[in-house]
Amino acid sequence: MTARYLEDYTVGQRFCSGRLRIDKERIKMFGAEFDPQPFHLDEDAARDTIFGGLAASGWHTAAVTMRLLVESDLKPAGGIVGAGADEFRWPRPVRPGDELRIESEVLEVRPSRSRPDQGVIKVRTTTLNQNDEAVQIIVANLVVPRRSTQDDKEISG
Amino acid sequence: MTARYLEDYTVGQRFCSGRLRIDKERIKMFGAEFDPQPFHLDEDAARDTIFGGLAASGWHTAAVTMRLLVESDLKPAGGIVGAGADEFRWPRPVRPGDELRIESEVLEVRPSRSRPDQGVIKVRTTTLNQNDEAVQIIVANLVVPRRSTQDDKEISG
After folding, report:
1. What's the pLDDT at B34?
2. Residues of B in contact with A87 (CB under 8 A)
3. What's the CA gap between A125 and B145, in Å, rounded?
4. Parallel/antiparallel/unpaired status of strands B14-16 and A99-111
5. CB–CB of A59/A34 below 8 Å?
6. How far apart are the CA of A68 and the nearest CA of chain B, in angstroms?
7. SS3 letters for B2-37?
8. pTM of this prediction?
9. Closest residue on chain B to A137 (Cα)
10. What's the Cα-to-Cα distance from B87 to each of A36, A59, A87, A139, B126, rounded to whole Å?
11. How far is C-alpha B116 from the geometric centre of its chain's CA atoms?
12. DSSP 8-state code for residue A76
């Protein structure tokens, strides 16, 4: 798989990933460092909360999703660089032992108005558990270099 | 500080946090686990990328922001539970040694239509570095319990 430029992306393209298991101990460690609330730290304390049991921090799910995206075939030249997100939801909690994977779809491809050497692709990434239930949906705008300007640079340089 | 219910939040309320320093080694460790791309892993490799040097993964910034939010005076009863975000941007990279803090503002307070025991507050959280430059802006919807229904439960129980 070679890296892709803006010109290599088309609306409707889809990308998948392998699976990554979320262990109970990693949920608690992530929670202790970044999201120290009872439902991310301890099974007993989590029982009487809105989650009804231990659940991964949404930011842990987001971080694991990023890992899966980096390992997927999306592979923009210059790396996966997010300018931000238009939509971001956690429809269902991630539980200890869940195995996550992603499905990404390109929704939009557009050159930048201010930067002729780059463009933006809008990508919806759905993170699914082992029962194919969505646990996170993010629609992100990624900065991607353009191939044509790359060639211009080589000529003018 | 006692925990707050939906009735305790008003539009325009603001909440601040302490500061948290982002170390170079933690940036690299987070990158290696969740966002293994050159600009999050190694100073030399990062130099020739869009970031022009080592930068924290946006998900690391998001996770640290959550930590600061949990430690702030926002303190919803039942914890900080995000249903999702309407806006999410990283206007500027986080560099090794940056000291981050947050400023949050309540934009909207509304009871849930389907769940009489809870509501949603919309909160904009800006993460700032030591030069007061915004490194992340998120407008999130948080699920918050209502006090009135809590009292009903105690009466009927």
Report:
1. 98
2. 84-86
3. 30
4. unpaired
5. yes
6. 8
7. CCECHHHCCCCCEEECCCEECCHHHHHHHHHHHCCC
8. 0.92
9. B84
10. 24, 15, 7, 10, 11
11. 26
12. B
Chain A residue with Cα closest to B52: A78
Closest alpha carbon to B59 in B82, B32, B19, B78: B32
**Closest Cα in chain B, distance from residue A121 (Å):** 15
ipTM field: 0.92
What is the dihedral sign for C-alpha A52, A58, A61, A63? negative
Asked if B78 is an interface residue toward chain A (Cβ–Cβ < 8 A), one would say yes
Closest CB from B49, B70, B84 relative to A37 = B70
Quote the CA–CA distance of A27 and A47 in Å, as a whole number. Answer: 15
Check: CB of residue A54 under 8 Å from CB of residue A95.
yes
Q: Which of A67-71, B63-67, B111-115, B142-146 has the lowest mean pLDDT?
A: B111-115
